[in-house]
């Protein structure tokens, strides 16, 4: 399931496939609501990995990337063994944070969508700090 869909610099959003396993579901075989956020996290991580950020929660200069805000709308339920596509697009870029628009599909059916803001913080103070210039520049080229 490691095939990546979507290419930087194209109009297609970055996307990864995700299979729903039993551990993702409740007793009825329906994906538990918080697991959609986990699927989105995987897609954002792979999005950043394509730019050379192998451990994107902690950048080389020590800056931490943390979820600052999450707004999620659930439309339909995913079920055990579904094959999903999770997309990630840059929605808004600021000096200290980036907001991603993310969607989860089963085929062409939209199941869930979210706006997730990731902030850069200083690891010592846990206060917002500027995104490293190289990262800001890379994200700006796709946003």
The name of the CATH architecture is Roll
Q: Work out the count of structural domains.
A: 1
Measured between the Cα atoms of the first and last residue, the distance is 26 Å
Number of helices: 2
CATH superfamily: Hotdog Thioesterase
Q: Mean of residue pLDDT?
A: 90
Kindly state the percentage of residues in helix: 10-25%
The CATH class, by name, is Alpha Beta
Unreliable sequence segments: 1-9
Q: What is this structure's SSE topology?
A:
Elements: E1 14-19, H1 33-49, E2 64-74, E3 83-93, E4 97-106, E5 109-121, H2 133-142
Antiparallel strand pairs: 1-3, 2-5, 3-4, 4-5
Q: Which terms summarize this structure?
A:
alpha+beta, Thiol Ester Dehydrase, Chain A, five-stranded antiparallel beta sheet, disordered N terminus
